[in-house]
Design brief:
single chain, 424 residues, mainly alpha, disordered C terminus
Length: 424
């Protein structure tokens, strides 16, 4: 094949090449932060190419719920980045402070262009489930041989929550979408591997997926068997939660629930904050008190770091020792209180804009594509609850995986909601 022929063939196969590379990047994203970042970059480049090279489709009189969901996500990320930039200008911070906000915005804008301009969206949908299923398997293979979860490619908390995002993509399809039996079996295996990876990681911030998964299964069962007694349905739901909660009484405490409760009791009773939950409790109280001092614009990141590093330094030796772990923290382990302490109500609004964007996208998809809507609801639940015990947006890996998860959902919804081309 001559060089011109090769270039012509490559140009003709361009979309498939991009999709294959993106699918590979998503499949291997749990194994290394650089691979996840490369997949995020591919989405951004593909969106830019679509914007500059592909024509904008003719506006249709028929409402486009997928486009509306994509626009809602872009606007939410734009509001988040704008407000965060305002706080950054008011309280000059280190140059990496805005990484997460602009990573979300760039990927959201690129995904929106792909949704609007991709000529054959079914090709984009084709890679979403296989790539995500492989990523669930890669997550288990990544963490299973490690002697310590701190050896993961990223901080264990955002890593585990990011793996839960992948399950949010998989579960509604496995439980509610019509699939060939063989496909459903292998996808169910990948879901089990993803859940096991999260359990092995012992990260409580991602445990909302362990509640959402049985709830989703129960609601799908209810939808398919409309004659089921509602009282039995509710009882079954509480029974499932009780089974999960009972793990705290097992000798090994596999979910670390008993350990977490013991640390809370110790902190409340003895004032000992030298544990994971104890340090969180102290930092939450510090953040709330600091927010009340300056509720509109907060105190800035530098002041937050100073107060954490100086916690207990002027106290007697026993109290100072009990706050040693707090002095090692860089943030207050709560996304909402962290934003409020640094940027007041403006900073908090930036954080809540992301939550609102996910909710608006899920609402826009509810009728056009219920499966995609439930996928987005799962991501919303995990993002909102995981932020209660950690500042996940402080980690670039988390922002990248959140961007990729939303992009995968919207790409799948964009293909699912449009009619397939009819044969000539």
């Amino acid at each position: 094949m001559t060089a011109p022929d090769f270039r012509t063939a490559l140009r003709a196969r361009g979309p498939e090449t991009w999709i294959a590379l993106l699918g590979l990047g998503i499949a291997l994203s749990p194994t290394h932060t650089k691979i996840a970042g490369a997949a995020w970059l591919l989405v951004c480049i593909a969106g830019a190419v679509a914007f500059f090279r592909l024509p904008r489709p003719v506006v249709s009189a028929t409402p486009d719920p997928v486009g509306a969901a994509s626009r809602a996500w872009v606007m939410a990320c734009l509001v988040c980045a704008g407000l965060a930039t305002g706080i950054w200008l008011y309280w000059p911070e280190p140059p990496d402070t805005l990484h997460a906000e602009f990573r979300l915005l760039l990927a959201a804008a690129a995904t929106h262009q792909l949704i609007l301009r991709a000529s054959d969206p079914e090709k984009w949908r084709a890679f979403t489930l296989p790539a995500t299923a492989l990523a669930c398997g890669a997550a288990l293979l990544t963490i299973a041989p490690l002697p310590d979860k701190m050896l993961l490619p990223a901080n264990p908390i955002p890593w585990a929550v990011s793996m839960a995002f992948l399950l949010c993509v998989m579960l509604p399809v496995v439980l509610g979408d019509p699939l060939p039996p063989a496909h459903r079996k292998w996808y169910a295996v990948s879901v089990a591997m993803g859940l096991l990876a999260i359990v092995v990681c012992h990260t409580r911030g991602a445990y909302a997926i362990l509640v959402w998964a049985p709830w989703l299964a129960a609601t799908n069962w209810r939808r398919a068997h409309a004659t089921i007694n509602l009282r039995k349905f509710v009882v079954a739901g509480f029974a499932g939660l009780a089974i999960l909660g009972s793990s705290a009484w097992l000798p090994s405490d596999p979910l670390r629930l008993r350990q977490g409760w013991s640390e809370v009791v110790t902190a409340e009773r003895d004032g000992n904050y030298s544990t994971s939950m104890g340090a969180r409790m102290y930092s939450w109280s510090l953040a709330w008190t600091s927010f009340q001092e300056s509720p509109w614009v907060g105190l800035g990141g530098k002041e937050r770091l100073r107060r954490l590093k100086e916690a207990g330094l002027g106290a007697p030796d026993p109290e100072r020792a009990q706050l040693a772990l707090v002095r090692k923290l860089g943030h207050v382990h709560n996304q909402y209180l962290h934003s409020a302490m640094d940027g007041g109500l403006i900073g908090l609004a930036a954080t809540l804009a992301v939550v609102a964007g996910l909710g608006a996208a899920a609402f826009a998809l509810r009728r056009a594509d219920p499966v995609a809507s439930r996928q987005m609801q799962g991501v919303l639940l995990l993002h909102a609850t995981a932020g209660l015990t950690n500042v996940n947006l402080a980690h670039n890996y988390y922002a990248v995986m959140l961007s990729l998860s939303v992009a995968v959902i919207l790409a799948g919804a964009g293909a699912r909601s449009r009619p397939l081309p009819q044969p000539a």
